[in-house]
Amino acid sequence: MSLLRRWHNALVHHRRVRVLAEMLAERIPPGSTVLDIGCGDGTIGQLISQRKPGLAVQGVELVPRAGCKIPCGPFDGSSLPFPGDSFDVCLLVDVLHHTTDVGALLREAARVSRRFVLLKDHASEGSLDAATLGLMDWVGNRPHGVGLTYNYQSRSQWKQHFAACHLRELSCTFEIPLYPAPFSWIVGRKLHFISLLDKMNPRV
C-alpha cells in the first residue's frame, strides 16, 4: 500500500488537487462563505482560499483528520450540523459517489446553502465506465482507508437528483485536465464533471 500511495501521489494526486482548486475557485463568487463537505485533509479547500482571497472556507468530515488544512468539524455522513442557509456555497468534491444515498446528502447541501452547490463527481454511462471508475477509486482511496460504495450515477440520474433537490444546473464541464497523457485517454474521457448548481428559489 505504501508503494501504491507513493505512485498515486507522484502521478495523480498533486496535479488533481491543483487543477480542481483552480477550476472550482473560478466558480465561487468573491467573498463567499464555503462549506467543503467531505473535505479530507483540507488541501483543496486551502488551495481554493489561496487562489481567491477573501473566501471563508470550512469543512466537515466523518472523522476530521489531525492537521486538516482548513477548520473542520465532524458530521455523520448524511446530516449537516448547520441550520438552513448557513453558507453561500456548499462544495462536494468526489464525495457523493461514496454515499449509499446520493440524493440525501445532496439535499442537505442544498438546505444549508444560501445559493450555490458546487459539485465535482463522476458520470458512468455503462459497464466500462463503472469498471474504470471503480479501479480509479480503489487506487486513489484504498491507501487512505476510505469506504468504497462505487455508487456511480449516469448524467440522466444526476439530472434527476438535481431536480429532486430543487437545484438548477447553471454550468457543467467535462473538460477537466486531471491526468497527463496517456492516462487521460483511459481514465479521463467523459468520466469527470464539475457542475455549478443554484437553488431554484434562493433567499436573497
Give the tags:
single chain; 204 residues; alpha/beta; Rossmann fold; 7-stranded mixed β-sheet; 6 helices; 7 strands; globular
Characterise this structure.
The chain is α/β, with parallel strands linked by helices. The chain has one domain (2-199): Vaccinia Virus protein VP39 (Rossmann fold, 3-Layer(aba) Sandwich), CATH 3.40.50.150. 37% of the residues lie in helices and 23% in strands. It is built from six helices and seven strands. The chain has helices at residues 2-26, 43-51, 102-112, 127-141, 155-164, 183-188, and strands at residues 33-37, 56-61, 72-74, 87-93, 113-122, 167-173, 192-199. It has a seven-stranded mixed sheet with strand order 3-2-1-4-5-7-6, with helices on both faces. Strand 1, helix 2 and strand 2 (56-61) form a beta-alpha-beta unit. The protein is globular.
Shape: globular
User: What is the oligomer described by this structure?
Assistant: single chain
Radius of gyration: 16 Å
Largest sheet: 7 strands, mixed
Specify the CATH architecture.
3-Layer(aba) Sandwich
Question: Quick one: CATH class?
Answer: Alpha Beta
Number of domains: 1
Produce a short descriptive summary.
The protein is of the alpha/beta class and 204 residues long. The protein has helices at 2-26, 43-51, 102-112, 127-141, 155-164, 183-188, and strands at residues 33-37, 56-61, 72-74, 87-93, 113-122, 167-173, 192-199. It has a 7-stranded mixed β-sheet with strand order 3-2-1-4-5-7-6, with helices on both faces.
